[in-house]
What we know:
- This protein is an alpha/beta fold.
- It folds into two domains: 52-176 and 305-368, D-Maltodextrin-Binding Protein, domain 2 (3-Layer(aba) Sandwich), CATH 3.40.190.150; 178-291, D-Maltodextrin-Binding Protein, domain 2.
- It has eleven helices and 16 strands.
- Helix 2 (94-110) links the parallel strand 4 and strand 5 (114-118).
- The protein is globular and about 65 Å long.
Amino acid sequence: xRDPLFWTDNAxxxxxxxxxxxxxxxxxxxxxxxxxxxxxxxKAMRNTTITRRxxxxxxxxxxxSFILVAPAAAQSGYPNRxxxxxxxxxxxxxxxxxxxxxxxxxxxxxxxxxxxxxVPGGSGTIGTVEIFGAEPxxxxxxxxxxxxxxxxxxNNPGLPYTNAEEFTxxxxxxxxxxxxxxxxxxxWKTFSEFVESAKADPGGISIAVGGxxxxxxxxxQQFQQAAxxxxxxxxxxxxxxxxxxxxxxxxxxxVSVASTSVRGQIQSGDLRPLxxxxxxEADEVDGFEVITHREYPGxxxxxxxxxxxGPKGIPEDVVAVLEAAHLEIMSNPExxxxxxxxxxxxxPTNSKEYLAQLVSDYSNFGQILGK
Length: 371
């Protein structure tokens, strides 16, 4: 997958002022997968495409599992006890959902119990700090996300880590696009109506996000600048699950999270899907109106990317075991189907590729934030 191209024509001094618009430009690149998209003619579009990396995982996972797992496990004795998998978000959040599916397969492959430990807060940084400070023996790993790993270090110089290079990367999973939903009982039936209300009452329409300065927050900042509108963006430190509770309780007018986080509430009618920020020709995806840079020139597509990380210094033979297991999980057709059904663009990467992606994200987001 090619990295998106980010650049700024004048560096912004925006740091933690979440109400100040950004002024970058970007040309999207790379390929997106989508579930149940429909074209402007109302025809169903292709549901699933296997990316180059997915094909790579399919062709190499079995080989890696025999070459790496067996010898490495024999050399290190790893694993011989339970593994803790830290999720830096609340139960029910998109990262938690992915992690529980992933760890079930990881436990089966490694023949140990993998215990999910939710450590939410700080826009994902509290749990990520726990991973950072863990013993580097392979028995504490966790969910890696580009918000705490590539965005928050720019905004929070007090973090004990400065970038993803201070972690051990196991492998990447893929990414998701941002969405906007409202309470099912709200007055807004379309995103256009929602935006018009915001234009008529600048700062009066509130949207919850799962953390200050996270990727969804930055996406809304980008839309505000492109559309000439001002929302009241309300961050919830515990992640997307808390933001969803806020819109369900009508504490806020809308919520911007990954589609996974609101799928059940949309199906029940408790929430109404309005918009998805994604570069597609389709008019809608799973009920979300597709919002593109063609309608709002200059708007960037900022995507959540996720993977698996551990503390820096995990022995190479242990990393080899975890990396081989990761690639085998990412070649599992049922697991891939579940992720795609949840709106993921599945794009498996190995340890080195995932680190390179996070390093690139760190640089790109730094440019967006004027760092």
